[in-house]
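Handout, section B. The chain below has 302 residues.
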Amino acid sequence: MSVLITGPSEGGLGAETAISLAHANPALLILVGRSLSKIQPTIDAIHAVNPSIAVKFIAADLSSLNSVREAARKIVDDASITHIDVLINNAAVMACPYELTVDGFEMQFATAHLGHFVLTKHILPKLRASAGAGKPQTRIINVSSLGNTLGGIRWDDPSYTKRPEEYKPWDAYGQAKTANVLFTVALNKRLLAKTGIRSYALHPGGIYTPLLRHMNDELMEEITQRVMKGEMQLKTVQQGCATTLRAALDPELEKEGEDGVFLSDCQFTKDPELVAPRALDEEDAERLWGLSEELVGEKFEL
């Protein structure tokens, strides 16, 4: 099995996912991150589990579309990467101060959604090669969160450039995490019938990871009240990656819910306290697809 994971830096959910996968002896793990220095501890941990696993590091800044396109080109052109069975779009930024990327997009929306939109498009041939070989588990996993309930897509101003004074870190995070789920809905509509590739989104749980680096007491109190009902329930990183692993690997998922899209605690759910109905809306999924194409300046065609 060949698996690509974005954002697998030390201590995070992506790293633990990669390390856990190492126990299953995959043929190849492709780790996409900002720099080798950030990813090397994860590579070392993988090889501590199984030194025979092939690991490829691909440098990419998910907030820069040019960086993502260059990384995707390297993946597609690499003859040793014959196929990708599972793509795990994991990288994200959470509740950061207002910042625009080099392309002029709000940082959270760009990193969690637009970067993955472009990456998925450009490496799709490698995923289709897996599906075309009759492999039963070719999947695209978009790591969302309970944060999707915090806010929907700002259709007329997703990057707050028209009204920057309206920026609130958790609302912008909600937009980014809603986009992860809507992207999943749209991918299934386009890919499942034609290629057999399935896409799932998920909430891994509340976990203390480096993703919390922008957190302060005020932001922590706000998120606790808005989505945790006053009580912060935390998982370990190992517990947190369990839902990602099930979404990526378990062949029983299709039997449990043929139209299932979103998982929490390793189970399909449509509980509105976990996944907002707007995040599963097919019309909004199509609208986001069109908006994303417009923003990145290229069509995502099969």
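Note. The first strand starts at residue 2 and ends at 6. Compare this with the example in section A.
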